[in-house]
Amino acid sequence: MIFAGIDSGSWNTKAVVIDDNARVLGTAVTRSGADLSAAAEHVYRTVLERAGCTRDEVAAVWSTGFGRQCVTFANGSRTELDCHGRGAAHYVAGPLVVIDIGGQDAKVIRLDASGQRLSHRMNRKCAAGTGSFLDEIALRLGIPIERMDALANGSTEELDLSSFCTVFAGTELLTLIRGGKRPTDLAMAAYRSLTKRIVALDVLQGRVVATGGVIAHHPTMVKLLGRELHAEIVVPPHPQEMGAFGAALAARDGATSVGPIPVELERGQPLTATGGIAHAT
Q1: How is residue 56 annotated by DSSP?
Q2: Are 26 and 50 spatial neighbours (Cβ–Cβ below 8 Å)?
Q3: What would be the CATH architecture of the domain defined by 2-84+240-280?
Q4: Which pLDDT value is given to residue 204?
Q5: Contact criterion met (CB below 8 Å) for 124 and 108
Q6: CATH of domain 94-235
Q7: CA nearest neighbour of 55 among 17, 14, 7
């Protein structure tokens, strides 16, 4: 049997198709834009093509993310916290801490040894702890965001962006540019600033799993987080599509259920684990 998950994010929409053994058959990512339903439809068509299957072959598709209610063809939905925890627990045995850094928010999710969610923290009020912060810095530096990680790798001078506010950090950056500081050192300063913001969200101890688009496309963040936490940061397969993968797992585990989704599931109740896979209670 085949199952699919759609993660409708505020910046990107992701899709994953799996078989009943949770083997990933295909993934896809597209910009969400202003029409979340259209983005979900587009990414779903794309992932089905990459997986080599048709809609009729998909037993169930579930959605998650900021715009999960806009995925009109979904059979069910789960919260982002549920899906990211579910996906991480599939790959990494608990207890663990999941750090997810997306375009518009950052999440810290604690799971116990059985995969149950113990607590979570989210950064929603400021872009300083998200991918949008890096986009803003890249814009200020006049480079494509895709070049920023490679640029930072050439840094030789340690600079600081002390402000946690994206607007104020941009002003600091302009001051440093005016002072003749090199773009490579400024790029690394931005990564250090983002790292500090993430670390400040919660006490991060034990095994740490990192997911999200920032982790997928900015390896420097993984190195800095590991250095700051004095720990190895585990990056599972397809980190940007982890929420969609968790939604696909939910589709697989809930595909045989009948009737509407219970309200407590929609609100993201704790997870339990069976055979290494997290299930909603």
Answers
A1: G
A2: yes
A3: 2-Layer Sandwich (3.30)
A4: 80
A5: no
A6: 3.30.420.40
A7: 17
Q: Where are the beta strands (DSSP E) in 93-173?
A: 96-101, 106-111, 117-123
Q: Output Rg (C-alpha) for the chain, integer angstroms.
A: 19
pTM for the whole structure: 0.83
Q: Hey, where are the domains in the chain?
A: 2-84+240-280, 94-235
The tokens describing 61, both together, are 């598709």
Residues 6+ apart with CB under 8 A from 105: 10, 122, 123, 124, 129, 130
Matching CATH topology for 2-84+240-280 and 94-235?
A: yes
Separation between Cα atoms, residue 268 and residue 25, nearest integer Å: 26
- Please identify which residue in the block is written with the tokens 């994206």: 166
Position 248 scores a pLDDT of 97
pLDDT of res. 255: 44
Asked if residues 64 and 247 have their Cβ atoms less than 8 Å apart, the reply is: yes
H or E segment at 77? strand 76-77
Tokens of 43: 């990414």
Q: Give the chain's residues under pLDDT 50.
A: 255-281
